[in-house]
Amino acid sequence: xxxxxxxxxxxxxxxxxxxxxxxxxxxxxxxxxxxxxxxxxxxxxxxxxxxxxxxxxxxxxxxxxxxxxxxxxxxxxxxxxxxxxxxxxxxxxxxxxxxxxxxxxxxxxxxxxxxxxxxxxxxxxxxxxxxxxxxxxxxxxxxxxxxxxxxxxxxxxxxxxxxxxxxxxxxxxxxxxxxxxxxxxxxxxxxxxxxxxxxxxxxxxxxxxxxxxxxxxxxxxxxxxxxxxxxxxxxxxxxxxxxxxxxxxxxxxxxxxxxxxxxxxxxxxxxxxxxxxxxxxxxxxxxxxxxxxxxxxxxxxxxxxxxxx
Length: 309
Known about the structure:
Layout: H1 2-32, H2 39-48, H3 52-60, E1 65-70, E2 76-82, E3 87-92, H4 101-116, E4 125-130, H5 135-142, E5 183-186, E6 189-192, H6 201-211, E7 215-223, E8 227-229, H7 239-252, E9 255-257, H8 269-275, E10 280-285, H9 293-307
Parallel strand pairs: 3-4, 3-7, 7-10, 8-9
Antiparallel strand pairs: 1-2, 2-4, 5-6, 8-10
Helix pairs in contact: 7-9
């Protein structure tokens, strides 16, 4: 009897052992025969994964904006483009950085307007806006080189004066090659015009951009006097400049002036443009705080309409 029980126990143990052995073989076979990713599967995975490097390159190469150069403190100077015509109109703000901070803001207002109303740009026209030509001076006052609001500006106008100059303490609107002087004047103050015409990278950036593109008109914002001023450099006011001045002034309500004669101006950017044969005007906002967008919008619309073929 005991022998039969022993045999039965051995048989049961053998059966159980065979069961576990077969189970492990099945699991191993399943794992070993599970399909591995093919080259096509790997390609699909790579395709579905965001390519950060490509996205970054696309942003840098965005055809709607161009980094035209850098400031003395190596901040990017960016131009934004609207429309695709061959006749390019240039609008510039912020040459005096954080001192004339409202000129930066009016340029940003223009950018928003063109983004929302692209139909105001004639088919033959391309509009380029450089909202901040002096990012060093802007950062010195508002703490950023990009877009900001009026609430970021110190309440005291005296605190904004250092923002007129770039990181080398040069007045950029005294650094262009028209009646340039190293020892220049701003109101009753002596200021630096740089070591030579275009000694400053900001002035070089504008010069190079203009010389490489078909600029048919230029509008540069300053503050504060409340008027539109023509440009010239030893050759009288061109008829095209007079027409541009009157078009902007009549539509905006600003007064028109053939020259800025409050004090001596040397190395002026707009006058240099005139010497290069480009119709260019200075639009001086009335105060150092107001953007006066409705007036400027009217002037801009009139200029764009006048350039339509």
